[in-house]
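Hey,
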Amino acid sequence: MTTSGGVSCSCGRWVSVVTVRAEVTDRMLIAGPRHLHAVLEEYVAHYNRHRPHRARNLRPPDCGDITTAPVADLAMVRIRCHKVLGGLIHEYEPAA
């Protein structure tokens, strides 16, 4: 199912055009409609599941808990980096 703009409804919550443009499309060359669709799907997933939002105490929208995130002692915790959109965006999480 698609909307009138042709972007799939599976993108979930939509992010502002200004945010997408500043963080993604102004920084990469889009090769065509299929590439644009793939890039937008990956970015929307990042935005809703990982990107911190100030209004939610630095929690992403898909996180039900809006309590303040605990501060980790970086001398004691190992951090793992995951590249999104070919390294344009980086997500960080504690390493197992």
